[in-house]
Amino acid sequence: MSEESAARGRVLLIVSGGIAAYKVLETIRRLKQAGVAVRCVLTRGGAEFVTPLSLQALSEDRVYTDLFSLTDESEMGHIELSRQADLVVVAPASADLLAKMAAGLADDLAATVLLATDKPVLVAPAMNVRMWEHPATQDNLATLIRRGVSLIGPNEGPMACGEYGPGRLVEPADLAAAILRRLGAGAGEAEERAQPAAGPLAGRKALVTSGPTHEPIDPVRYIANRSSGRQGHAIAEALAALGAEVTLVSGPTHLPDPPGLATVRIESAEEMLAACRAALPVDIAVCAAAVADWTVKARGAAKIKKQAGGPPPALELAENPDILKTLSAPGAERPALVVGFAAETEEVAQLGAKKRARKGCDWILANDVSEGTGTFGGDENTVTLITAEGAEPWPTQTKRAVAARLAERIAAHFEDPSRTGAAGKAAE
Ligand code: CTP
Question: Known catalytic residue: 287?
Answer without folding.
Answer: no
